[in-house]
Write a structure and sequence with these properties.
elongated; mainly alpha
Length: 73
């Protein structure tokens, strides 16, 4: 549950946004089919951070929404 708490925190959300943005930039730089795949993969953490979702939290028995994870503390 500690991992889910971190990912729901402000630092975790920022890390997901930065990681997603970096993957998107890397994918654009790569170009071609591989670049498109990296961009598509980068959209997931970017969107999850922006919309305050933690897609891995349910694997640890935590709620999907970051607000609910933070409220359970």
């Amino acid at each position: 549950m500690g991992f889910a708490r971190f990912m729901a925190s402000g630092a975790g959300r920022a890390a997901r946004v930065v990681a997603g943005g970096a993957l998107i930039v890397l994918g654009i730089a790569l170009g071609g089919i591989a670049g498109i795949v990296v961009v598509v993969v980068g959209v997931l953490p970017l969107a999850a951070g922006l919309f305050d979702l933690c897609v891995f939290a349910p694997l640890f028995g935590a709620p999907l929404r970051g607000r609910e994870v933070r409220a359970s503390n």
